[in-house]
Amino acid sequence: MTASRNIAIYGKGGIGKSTTSSNLSAALSELGLTVMQIGCDPKADSTNNLRGGESIPSVLDALRSGKKIEIGDIVFKGFNGVLCVEAGGPEPGVGCAGRGIITAIELLKQKKVFEEFSPDIVLYDVLGDVVCGGFSVPIREGVAEQVYTVASSDFMALYAANNLFKGIKKYANNGGALFSGIIANSMSKPVQREIIDDFAVHTSTTVAGYVERSLAVTRSELRGQTVIERDPDSPQADVYRRLAKGIVENQKRYVPAPLDAEELKKWASSWSDRIIGQDADEEAPKSTSYPPAGSEGLS
């Protein structure tokens, strides 16, 4: 690759966006690419699993210190050489969380970080519940060329994705980033894929890949690692590798067609009616044995 690919990955809080981003970064690094992951969440925990569960100082932490900032104060190496940066956020209750993204990007440019490391791919891991203020910078300012969203088949995840589509559409004519695909996460039943596929049809988008729900992710994150590092021979690791390869090859960049509020509500209601009875096995009472009263636990 001769030029850096800047990719923003959005998704509502708790949807697995940072898990997906860090496993993608690890898988992309296995392809021989120089990868930089920039966490754009005020919690500053996007890159933890690339560094053995260790948090790194954020850009805003460095600025608040009042000391002269060197590149080594804000860029840290993680698994397989992945470059890790956390934008950070303001002190609790003070200022705009999105401001951290704006400040971080400005400082990285001032310090010529991208020239220093020449990353092949820069992944921006961005909170996607609200596409406004600083959180919209990767889209609005054209910082990223391609945007993906991590979404499950749950309504609130798709609601957040639809809002993201509205933001992309709004800025598309002013040099904003364009969309490249939905990463369908936590897929455990065929109907969940069907819901995602149908949502993509109704919003004129595409599905970049499906990530199944797996305990390999839980095991790895409990050790502060990606699946690529902790369980490299697992089927789940191969899922992330295929997704990473697909992202490298994917040149699609387009404007989605978001649904308005009423259309989204009607679409969701139609699927609620269609899946009635499909989860009957989950709702059926299960026989459960409990330890006797006063028991100290299982032997």
Automatic annotation (TrEMBL):
Pfam families: Fer4_NifH (PF00142). InterPro entries: NifH/chlL_CS, NifH/frxC, P-loop_NTPase. GO terms for molecular function: 4 iron, 4 sulfur cluster binding; ATP binding; metal ion binding; nitrogenase activity. Its cofactor is [4Fe-4S] cluster. Keywords: 4Fe-4S, ATP-binding, Iron, Iron-sulfur, Metal-binding, Nucleotide-binding, Oxidoreductase. The keyword Cell membrane does not apply. It comes from the Archaea. Its EC number is 1.18.6.1. Residues 275-299 are annotated as: Disordered. Belongs to the NifH/BchL/ChlL family. This is Nitrogenase. It comes from Methanosphaerula palustris (strain ATCC BAA-1556 / DSM 19958 / E1-9c).
